[in-house]
Amino acid sequence: MSAASCLRSEDQFRCSICLDVFTDPVSTPCGHNFCKNCINEHWNSDDIYLCPLCKEVFYTRPKLHINTFISEMVAQFRQEAQQKASSSSSEQQAAKPEVPCDVCTGTKLKALKSCLVCLTSYCETHLEPHLTKPGLKRHQLMDPVENLEDRMCIKHDKPLELFCKTDQTCVCMLCSVLDHKTHEFVPLKEEYEGKKAELGKTEAEIQEMIQKRRLKIQEIKHSVDLSKEAADREKAEGVQVFTALKESVERSLNELIETIEEKQRTTEKQAEDFIKELEQEISELKKRRSEVEKLSHSEDHLHLLQNFPSLKAAPPTKDWTVVSVRPSYEGTVVKAVAQLEETLSKQKKKLFAEVKLKRVQQYAVDVTLDPDTAHPQLILSHDGKQVYYGDVKKKNLPDNPKRFSRYCIVLGKQSLSSGRFYFEVQVKEKTDWSSGVARESIDRKGKITLTPQNGFWTIRLRNGNEYKGCNNTPVHLSLESPPQKVGVFVDYEEGLVSFYDVDAAALIYSFTGCSFTEKLYPYFSLGPNYGGINSAPLIICPVNQTV
Predict the structure, then answer these.
(1) pTM of whole model > 0.85?
(2) How far apart are CA 204 and CA 21, in angstroms?
(3) Please, are residues 432 and 392 in contact by the beta-carbon 8 Å criterion?
(4) H helix or E strand, kind and range, residue 34
(5) H or E, element range at 82
(6) For the segment 110-121, what is each residue's pLDDT rounded down to a tens digit?
(7) Which CATH architecture best describes the domain 113-188?
(8) Residue extents of the structural domains in the chain
(9) Residue 110: which residues within 8 A CB-CB, separation 6 or more?
(10) Would you say 498 and 357 are in contact if contact means Cβ atoms under 8 Å apart?
(11) Which fold is adopted by the domain 3-90?
(12) What is the pLDDT of residues 44-83, one digit of tens each?
């Protein structure tokens, strides 16, 4: 099995409780795997039974059975790992450099041991005196190494036999009484044993850091899975909510799904970055562990002590305890639905207004202006569809009781005493106007107050931006945009007068519950001219029923 597949198998078959390869693996109802003893001890120590990984609660203690498939895979993994370890050990043995015997002449045999006293390496034959003669038996032997002269004090040409704890360096006997006489010393072997123990502790700490990071990888992967499940649920709920709706709803659904998937993509990207960084740290830690392990197995005192400081400290790593992947989808659908409701509410109002407008436009009548009612300063077009200001009041007009003499008002010729009728008037570029309907008996000579009580059902514009519904108590109207064309609808029997912004297909204002007892006439007032500022005409427009 390749190194990559071994690492993959080790990650797959590692218990998240003991952080070791499974022993008697069992599966919980939620689908996660643990050592049988680990999960039993975990549940024995708590009052509730929950999965340590996904936190799902089981209200009765699940019956656990050995997962034979995983058990067989673990056994296979252990066998392959042992084979790999054996092969690696053989390779390390084969990789050790051969040190020639310093005594042999001619063809030098392979040295079996090196003497730290004689500073000489010996083959099996030449090593015999060190094994038999009493004086030489006391010499310190070690596995053969090259360059024994490096083990001599450069200054005093004596063997490096002591370790100065004060200066943290290897010294000879003369150094201890000359250059380091006030310092604390221990034999190399004693310091070697201490440092070797520290290396073992460092190796264990690094291994624990690796295991924690492997567990963090599992946690992040699990978080991504939960996030994906949450995203799928959110999408499903979104589909369920929006399925019954039409074009605008489908657009909202697509936007919702895109938002959720963008969050999921962000979550997955964040998780991938974390995992990549964790795997990088694991790689560095494994490298350091290998170096520490190699050094800890060395019997070369000097080599270990000289390399110990650089390997004791673990490489710089991130504190992963504060890192987590917790995507939140809560409220996504609710927010989308709220936005959709607001959109649909506006669309519904507009749709209803369009439908209503189309309906009332069916009652359009061909309105023309009545010159007998027009104020003397007003000029009417030949077709009776436009009214605008003249320079001066007309003189020698017949004294007609129907004519408005105080205000620039004109009525339509057509009247209504039953049923429904509708007309449209263009008010574009005017800063002051009023329009609607008026009953036949209104006062046409004196002061006029536009109210239903006085026989007028109108809306008006003043000062270019003040729109009012001229009820008995005036109603200020808040319009999104100034209407360019106003539609007027009357239902005589219903007692209804409604005004529409034709271009926006929006209802402006309605008089309801009216009681009509006389004929009603279309009403138009140009308002004051204000020195030409409000000189634009009022125009009765043909009704386009394809709105």
Answers:
(1) no
(2) 17
(3) no
(4) strand 33-35
(5) helix 68-95
(6) 998 988 778 889
(7) 2-Layer Sandwich (3.30)
(8) 3-90, 113-188, 197-342, 362-541
(9) 98, 99, 100, 101, 123, 144
(10) no
(11) Herpes Virus-1 (3.30.40)
(12) 877 778 888 888 888 778 888 888 888 888 888 877 777 7
